[in-house]
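Collaborator request log, item 7. Partner lab (contact: R.S.) asked for a structural prediction of DDE family transposase to inform their binding assays.
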Amino acid sequence: MAAVDFTHVPYHVWPWIDKDEQIPKSTYPPMVSGYVDDGELKHGYTFATITIVGNDVPIILGIEGVKEHSDWEPAETPADSKADVVTRLLSRAQQYVDLDEVLLDRGFYARNVRAEINSRGLLYTMPVGKYESDYKAIKRIKSKHGVDAAVNHDVPVGIDGDVDHTAEYLYVPATSDDADGEYAVFVTNRDHVNPDEIAHVMNSYSRRWDIENQYKSVQSYLPKTSSTDYRVRLFNFTFAALLYNLWRLTDFLVKVGMEREIRSPPVVTARTFVRAVGNSLRKAG
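Returned to partner:
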């Protein structure tokens, strides 16, 4: 099981000479884009990763720099599609592991993304971002006494006018992390999800939070820099991701030696690991 997501490395420089007049800075780094974090518009470099989640050690299998389109750029400026990013990440990950399922957040809810994952014989699960068309189904759920979840079976996923595959839409009570309303909608390409299987699918999807926790650790490993050279930014993020992987592998080996559960809290903390690495580097000169 793997999770795919985007993360941002902040860049604290305003992109506009005059936003009201729509005059951008000509020297603004092209790989910096805008994003919303906790309701606040920010700017930063975007990176995508694919990470092992679930019952295994959460190792990063692939990294991709992402060029997104921003408001201050001309409309014809090239940008990476989410489907292309997912394709590259899956190709890289499948060199190392046999994947079964991919978990994504609502930002990846696109037909081409789902078709790419399905074409590889993999399962996917993700939230549906905007589900206005599903309000009638949600109201029907709420009208049935004692029923708090439902499934819409075999919904076609169309690509270029053809049906690529069919998907199951799951209607579940929302949590604060799922949606703003009382219900959240998820989509999966499992063959046929019975209502009594919804809880299992949702429990599996909750493993996606491993990648969110991973990003917090990677951010703490990032070297500080003010460079706008994208090569420096990409190297720093890759270096931090490698440190994260080394920490996870070190903790895994220690747990094996101590006969601890793999998914138990770390024996070697991230801070202890960084301290040990720093001491080794200083000794090496």
